[in-house]
Amino acid sequence: MIFHKSGYYFIALLLLAVIGFWNSYFSTLFSGTDGFLHFSEINNYVHFHAVTMLLWIGMLITQSFLIRFNKRSLHKFVGKFSYLLVPVLVVSLILLAHSQITIYEYGISYGRQYILFLQLSLLSIFVIAYGLAIANRHTPARHARYMIGTALTMIDPAVARIPLDLPPLPFSYQVWTFGLTDLILIVLIFLERNHKRGREVFPIMLGVFLLFQGFNLTATRSLIWDNFSLWFARLPLT
User: Fold this and answer.
1) Contact yes or no for 103/230 (Cβ under 8 A)
2) If we measure between CA atoms, which residue out of 158, 203, 150 comes closest to residue 176?
3) Smallest Cα–Cα separation from 69: which of 5, 165, 151, 123?
4) What's the rounded mean pLDDT across residues 215-231?
């Protein structure tokens, strides 16, 4: 697998995220008649998470081009910023998820429980991919592929918000977004079938995605998750 063009793919991912979140986020920043940014009109937890994710995508783009132009020392220096950014990103999503929950007389709506599971499962996949990338930081072939794994967690939230007229399936858009992520991994596995170094990474990431996707589609209607969701919602976080 050739990674010298990965920076352009990450730029495409950034554009996909902007398109997906345009109606719900980016367009609202300029919703006033004066044409200026209106941050106060949006939940601060949304801003917090948006900034951390944009920083992460920006770092992926920067790191890819630094490797392409053989700036390895600078690549390692910038990479150390992730030790600070990733914990902040994790906190930002947890706070965002918590701020979006409303407790009713009967508990929490199933829709919100499902979204909470989706948020936390994608966060878990991100942390797993990032942790494996750092563990393999001295093995470039594996390190780069696991970093791509962190980027793939953004496919679902971005594509799910694009207004597409797709045929109805069980769980609606979720099957399409999960399927798209899995298809990308399958294509990468096929393209790397003859490589000797690092080709085990994408099958591992496919297995991780399928595991959490399976739970997402089957385990969100359970007493265990009901109790966890209510416990999480009652935490004094936001």
Assistant:
1) yes
2) 158
3) 5
4) 90
The answer to whether the CB of 42 falls within 8 A of the CB of 99 is no
Collapse the DSSP code of 104 into the 3-class scheme (helix H, G, I; strand E, B; otherwise coil) and give the result: strand
Instruction: Report CA 221 to chain centroid distance, whole Å.
Output: 23
CA distances to 17, 27, 29, 30, 125 from 35, in Å: 22, 11, 9, 5, 38
Residue 183 in contact with residue 175, Cβ under 8 Å? no
Res 162: pLDDT: 81
- Residue 162 — φ and ψ, nearest 5°? -80, 125
Letter string b/e over residues 2-26, b meaning 16 or more CB atoms within 10 A of that residue's CB: ebeebbeebeebbeebeebbeeebe
Which one-letter amino acid corresponds to residue 186?
I
pTM of the model: 0.91
What is the per-residue pLDDT across 133-147, written as a single tens digit (0 to 9) for each? 999 999 998 999 999
pLDDT in tens, 117-167: 999 999 999 999 999 999 999 999 899 999 999 999 999 999 888 877 666
Region class of 172: left (phi > 0), else alpha (psi between -120 and 50), else beta: left
Q: Which two tokens stand for residue 166?
A: 């797709």
| Alpha-helical runs (H) found in the chain | 6-20, 44-68, 72-79, 82-99, 110-135, 140-152, 155-159, 173-191, 201-218, 223-234
Amino acid 97 reads A
Q: What is the distance between the alpha carbons of residues 136 and 132, in angstroms, rounded to a whole number?
A: 6
Nearest to 171 by CA among 115, 227, 116: 115
